[in-house]
Amino acid sequence: MISATSFCGVEFGNPLILASGVWGSAASSLARAVENGAGGVTVKSLSLAPRAGHPNPTMVGTKTYFLNAVGLSNPGIEAGKEELRRYKELAAAPLIGSIFAGTADEFAQLAAAVSVSPIDLIELDLSCPNVGREFGEPFAYSAAAIGAITRQVKSATRVPVSVKLSPNAWNIAGLAAAAEAAGADAITAVNTVSGMAINVRARSPVLHNKQGGVSGPALFPLALKCVYDIYERVRIPIIGTGGVTTGEDALAMIMAGATLVGIGSAVYYRGAEVFKKIRAEMEGIMAEEGIKTLDEIRGAAHRACP
After folding, report:
1. Rounded to whole angstroms, how far apart are CA atoms 223 and 244?
2. Where is the active site (predicted)?
C-alpha cells in the first residue's frame, strides 16, 4: 500500500526519511537507516569549516521528550563531501544534504560546494535553536533573511532546495510563504523547539549549554500544527518532521499536508528498525480504514467537516 513517493522530482522508496542529525554524517551510519527501511536520508548539517560542537553533557532523554545541544558538530564540507560520495556507494536511496552557515554568502558557498556531491536535495538549516551564542538569532525568525538566503542559494545550485523552519516562530506559515516566494522548492517543518532541563539536586541545568532543542513525542503536536498551517499557505511540498514516533503519527503528518515524513528521535525510543515498524503500523491502519494510497489522504485534515 505504501509505494514510492515523488518529492521535487526525486523518487523515494517510501515517504519515511532519516531526519538530519540523528546518525551523523558517516556514510555507514546513513546507509544503516536505509537497511532498516528508510526511504531516504538527511545528513547531519555541514558547515564550511569543521565544528567540535558543545562540551558534554549535550543530550538527555525522558519518556516524553529528548533534549539536545550538540552544537552542530560536523567534519566540515570537504570531509563531509567524501562521506556523501561513499554513501552513494553503499545505498541507492535519495540523499538530502543539510547545510548551515552564518551569512547568506556562506550559505551560497556551501550550496555550491555540496552540489558537486551526489546529493538529491539540499536542506537549509536556518533554525537550530541551540547555537545562539555563536550565530545569534536564527534566520528562520525573519522573512527577509529567509528570502535573501534562499535566493542566493538558488542562484548557486540547480539541486532542489528545502528550507527548514522553526516551531519557535509564531508566524511560521508566513515564513514558509517567504521561502516559496524566494524560489524554495520545498519546506522542512520543523526543527526542534527551545527548551531546557534542570537537575534539582545539583541545582543546575543538565546540559552544558544550559538550553537545547526539544524533540520526541512532546514536539509532535507542535510540529503537526506547523505542517497544517504551512500547507494552507504554500503550494510547494513539505517534509513533516518532529516527534513522529508511530505509524499513526506519520499518517497524521500526511493528513496535515506532508509528502515526506522525517524520523529522528524515534530511533532513540524504538530502535534502529523504527522505519520498518512505523511503515508496518501505517499499512495496518490503512488496511483497517480502507485507504489504498497515501495520495488520497494527503491534506485530508483540511477537507474534514467542522
Report:
1. 9
2. 128
Q: In what side-by-side order are the strands of the sheet with 211-215?
A: 59-61, 66-68, 211-215, 193-196
Q: Is 265 annotated as a binding residue?
A: yes
105 Rama sector, left if φ>0, alpha if ψ -120 to 50, beta otherwise = alpha
Predicted pLDDT of residue 136: 58
CATH of the domain at 219: 3.20.20.70
- Tens of pLDDT, residue by residue over 283-294, are 999 999 999 999
User: Which residues are within 8 A (CB) of 11 and not within 5 positions of it... i.e. 6 or more apart?
Assistant: 4, 5, 94
Query: CA 122 to CA 118: how far, in whole Å?
Result: 11
Residue 194: alpha-carbon gap to chain centroid: 16
pTM score, whole prediction: 0.96
Measured in whole angstroms, how far is the alpha carbon of residue 80 from the centre of its chain?
A: 18
Which residue range(s) make up the domain with 102? Answer: 5-302
pLDDT of residue 43 exceeding 50, the answer is yes
CB atoms within 10 A of CB 55: 11
The answer to whether 103 is a known ligand-binding residue is no
Which residues are catalytically annotated? 128
User: 56: which DSSP letter?
Assistant: S
How many domains is the chain built from? 1
Confirm whether residue 264 is marked as ligand binding. Answer: yes
What letter does residue 9 receive in the DSSP assignment? T
